[in-house]
Amino acid sequence: MKDKIRERAEFLRDNMILSTQELVRIPSVEAEAEGDFPYGKNVYQSLAKAVEISENLGFKTKNIDNQAAHVEMGEGEEILGLLCHLDVVPEGSDWTYPPYAAEIHDGKIYGRGTIDDKGPAVAALYGMKIVQELGVKLNKKVRLILGTNEESGMASLDYYFKKEKMPDLAFSPDATFPAIHAEKGILDLKFSAEIEEKAAKEGIKLIEIKGGNATNMVPDYAEAVISGIEKEELKELLKELEYDQDELEIKAENNNIILGYHGISAHGSMPEDGKNAISYLIDILAELPFAAAGVRDFFSFYKNKIGLEYDGASIGCKDQDDVPTALTFNTGIIKGDQSKIQFIVNIRYPVKSSAEKVVSDIKTELTDLIDVELLRDAKPLFVAKDDPFIKKLMAAYQEFTGDDSEPIAIGGGTYARKVKKGVAFGPLFPGQPELAHQKDEHIGIDDLVKSAAIYAKAIIDIAGVKTDE
């Protein structure tokens, strides 16, 4: 069976490439609801294109009110779900190749969504196509379920499950190989500082601070607009500080000074892989003599309690369990001015911890200036490594890779946590860089084809009728 699967996967290689390119060329970043399009027209177009591709491959499809759709094969009462999403985070900046052109360079398709999660959705779809073309009889329904707002709350999948049966088993091609038996909890917290203080007529004033595109991204740019100081005078003050001068941009505009800091984007679950522009900018601002004491106090709080850390140590929530999963802390968005500043933090907490514990730990380190509000809590996911479902996924992976690694735990959050029994499974192979939410996101074409073969074998092993072969 292995050779037959590999042969069909290679035969379908060009189709997989084309289908991935068609989807990546649609900039499906969530936007305001518009008529029949709950997450904006571009997100809908991505869903419609995926349904069109699936129908052209000969599958039955169903669109659930433009919130989600499924692609179906097989028979039976039980359902094996393949959970993917078609929305993407904003593209960010400094791409080598255009983020929505889906260009091919050195055997890789470049573009936002290639690895998270349009390329994997294509691999899952063509995994189903391989099974179909091999004529394997199935005793379960197999549904590729396509959501449309995974990056901003997963509401589309909640909506889908109000209308359709939840799978009995499911895997989500939205992370890494091998099988992922645990996902950290995900917590979004909004920190607010109500300054409400009139600054002295003389001195530096904060006109505006802003940065970040999404809570689950390490921001690659942040800027502050200040007044009450000349550009050359500011440069003299900055000479006393230690910072990367190549990353800080200073320009005068309309009697104001704009300080723009260029960081490095990364997935919010792995802040150590990026360079948080918000935190680095505040590290500089905290050393400037702002006229308003409240502004100075805010920047001092941020520098001392958050700073450049990504483990939450100084703000009191550093934590780790024996799964093992460790807490990560990422400021994703900031906005504010002289009177009020707000920033949103994305925290991935250990599997054996809770949102209540994290918030309680943080509150012990807050000053009277800072309030915190819980915006979202996605509970952790855990399936035992020796669970039969995990074992079948691992067997399919090992057959095409020869890798005998153990199931792993991650900080990323996938649709797997939305079902009764689900885990994330691929498509990133061990040792490959994590490029989700980063510039120059790409997927290797060979990896795309191999993933489709692995998914085909997993479908056969879990939902196929056993034969003597």
Describe the structure.
The protein is an alpha+beta fold and 469 residues long. Helix content is 29%, strand content 27%. The strands form five sheets. Strands 1, 2, 3, 6, 7, 9, 20, 21 and 22 form a nine-stranded mixed sheet that branches. The chain has an eight-stranded antiparallel sheet with strand order 14-15-13-11-17-18-10-19, with helices on one face. β4 and β5 (108-110) form a beta hairpin. α2 runs antiparallel to α4 and α4 (118-134) packs across α11 (445-463). It is elongated and about 80 Å long. The model has no long low-confidence stretch (mean pLDDT 95).
Summarize the structure.
With 469 residues, the chain is of the alpha+beta class. Helices cover 29% and strands 27% of the residues. β4 and β5 (108-110) form a beta hairpin.
What's the SSE blueprint?
Elements: H1 2-11, H2 13-24, H3 41-56, E1 60-64, E2 68-74, E3 79-85, E4 104-105, E5 108-110, H4 118-134, E6 141-147, H5 155-163, E7 169-172, E8 175-176, E9 179-183, E10 185-194, E11 205-211, E12 217-218, E13 221-227, H6 231-238, E14 248-253, E15 256-262, E16 266-267, H7 277-285, H8 293-305, E17 328-336, E18 340-349, H9 355-363, E19 370-378, E20 381-382, H10 388-401, E21 408-410, E22 422-425, E23 427-428, E24 442-444, H11 445-463
Parallel strand pairs: 3-6, 3-7, 7-22, 8-23, 9-21
Antiparallel strand pairs: 1-2, 2-6, 4-5, 5-24, 9-20, 9-22, 10-18, 10-19, 11-13, 11-17, 12-16, 13-15, 14-15, 17-18
Helix pairs in contact: 1-4, 1-11, 2-3, 2-4, 4-11, 10-11
